[in-house]
Design a protein that fits this description.
By secondary structure, the protein is mainly beta. Helix content is 5%, strand content 29%. The protein has two domains: 8-37, no CATH class; 48-107, Complement Module, domain 1 (Ribbon). It contains one helix and seven strands, in the order H-E-E-E-E-E-E-E.
Length: 121
């Protein structure tokens, strides 16, 4: 049995494309060549800017495992955080072809309070 191990660099050069693989077999076995189709999940363009106060989104690609970063506008922080210094969010392209959810940004300094009302009679 022969196997082919590709480096990440080789796969990046050939994403979604057929390429020739040469199987190297022990002496006495016939030499074989075959085509191998690499099917990569593509999440497409991330539209994080549709979220409130997201300035821009940068990506290192749109395929499964690739990462994108959403940046908040000046004066805004990542939604749902209490730390004003958290102004970016990294999201990953998932195997189902969907990006992680971009949470959006909110004005720095907003405090959240949870109130629980207990009534007794």
């Amino acid at each position: 049995m022969a196997s082919f191990i590709a480096t990440d660099e080789q796969l990046q050069l050939n994403r979604g494309c057929c390429f020739l693989v040469q199987a190297i077999l022990p002496d006495g076995y016939p030499f074989h060549q075959f085509s191998l189709l690499i099917n990569f999940t593509d999440c497409g363009r991330l539209d994080g800017q549709s979220k409130p106060h997201v300035l821009n989104v940068t990506t290192n690609g749109t395929l499964y495992g690739d990462m994108a970063t959403a940046f908040c506008e000046d004066g805004y922080r990542l939604t749902g955080t209490f730390n004003n210094s958290i102004t970016t969010q990294d999201v990953i392209c998932q195997s189902d072809g969907m990006w992680d959810e971009v949470r959006g940004c909110e004005l720095k300094g907003i405090m959240y309070f949870n109130f629980i009302a207990v009534y007794s009679t």
